[in-house]
Amino acid sequence: MKVLGIFYLVSATFTPKYDMLWKFTGTMIVSAVLLLGCTPVQRTVSYRPPPPNASPRELIESINAPEYFEYLDEGETDLYPAVVMIATEDGEMIASGVLIKPDVVLTAAHCLDEDNAFAVENGSESVMIKDIIMHECYDPWLASNDIGIIFLECPMSAKPIELWGGGDYPRMSNITTIGYGAGHKKWSKDETFFYYGTIVEEPWFIKFLPMYGPIWHGDSGGAVVYDGKLIGIISSYTMHRSHGDINVIECSATSIRMYKHWIDGILKSR
User: What is the share, in percent, of the chain residues with pLDDT greater than 70?
Assistant: First the structure.
């Protein structure tokens, strides 16, 4: 089966509405700015206001309604502190990421191919990036192998999330997505997204359907969680024009199960 339609990567570019990140560096390994010393780490994870380039809250709520998505507001508990924000030197948001070790963040490769990632932010913490590795076979046009690893100068205080270790998860399982859509941290509520399956032409993806709202710009690199473990890294969505309207018809995440060996190999080599 081949899904027909318009394919988009879910970047943090908010205007124009459907503008996405399509540039490719042509390199297998991208080095971030190397910094001497280590940024002091604050040992609490607290609310952080949206970044300067965030879209208005009412815009993202019109796409991801509060009925189906929980938004992190000041004074509230962050239920998913392992999901962090990747930022430029100016503090603008690039994308989301997922803490898998205190000083290691997993994200989507297309979030890293402009080589402007400077720091990872999480509540009151901001830690500089030491190094970046993109999957050597990343293809921006197919969005295949859309995965990358960030190494930090210092450990962060949030508890890392556990990776899915293998085995299957039943089709139509209730899953949770977490990311910084339009610059606002949010997660899907129960029974908003369901794991739909994997298609033969894109075995690197797990698919889920946007019945109550899609993933959105800025969610890229964020988490897809099942049974408390990371099963996917948010990558893209597919849009289709029908009867004069353009609608999101499917959402895709890079499968942890497919890339666990690659992740383990990179971590072991470091």
Answer: 83
